[in-house]
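Let us practice reading a record.
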Amino acid sequence: MAGTGSAAAGDASAQERLRRWRMVLGGEEDGTGCALAGRDAGMDAALSALYGRNGRNGRDGERSAGLGGSAPHVARWLGDIRTYFPSPVVQVMQRDAIERLGLASLLLEPEMLEAVEPDVHLVGTLLSLHKAMPETTRETARAVVRKVVGQLEARLASRTRATLAGALDRSARTSRPRHADIDWNRTIRANLKNYLPEHGTVVPERLIGYGRAARSVRKEVVLCVDQSGSMAASVVHASVFGAVLASMRTIATRLVVFDTAVVDLTDQLEDPVDVLFGTQLGGGTDINRALAYCQSRITRPADTVVVLISDLYEGGIRDGMLARVAAMKASGTEFVALLALSDEGAPAYDREHAAALAALGVPAFACTPDLFPEVMAAALEKRPLPIP
């Protein structure tokens, strides 16, 4: 009997392995001989519609969309993948469907927008399409964008305000700090000459610490954001951070977006959704012109941080761009260059321009939204940036 039970368990284990290989291989002459039923069959059908032979470019190079061009068909598929897969997987599959099968035009229909799982990449797609949206779709699109923006604000706003408020407090040096504001490490180092060995202690003749930041504006921040198509996720995150910074009374925030033209969206910072619908993803890039505009708006260089968010592919005057960065740094302005502000890491970027900025003392690096508050805090305090 024991042998029979062991054999049955072995058969079940082998069948489970076949089932898993069948799901991985997709059933196109996979050699498993395994038939799927129930939930497995539903998952397989949803995956095959996108990644199977009918859902990708064939070997002859001709596209044959397994999802077809039918909005009801696609809407049903969107419902299926939300049933079978967790939200992060759904978002990846939606992005692949839009990119691989050319389904972006279907997002112009309200019923389609109501069926999708909102995420940053979907927002980027909607922003690239919003000029072509019919009036009936605009409010639905704004609702989708607002939902994503709300999720980002809930994740990032409190930590950003707390981190930057601490940086502003620490930037206000004082020789008569409150007890809670004493920088004990610096105080001890400054008073080592007053060490009393018989008592094993240091007598702090001079206290070093930080004062509380005043309610008036102490720092100015300029976010200069490349709105070319490859920077979509960065534009979304920058608009959220811009709104958070603008809500802090001690920071004067300016948001500038650019392609070959420059648009100042500072007066819309109260609502990041308005900011996003004020952008125009796509087009060329003129970093030099954008930096010229930002430079003209700086009134207190020593108290200003300029954050350039761009892949650095310059369509304008390269030497002019670098000269402006050098001039801003020489005036005392802190300059930060981010190749991306997103969770995807560094995109393709102009390595020659990145090296030229590094030679000016401005390292260019990709930054996740979670790291951005620490980067800004370091820039406000004029200390080395926490480069990943």
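A brief commentary: The beta strands are 173-174, 195-196, 201-202, 209-210, 219-226, 251-258, 262-264, 304-309, 334-341, 364-367.
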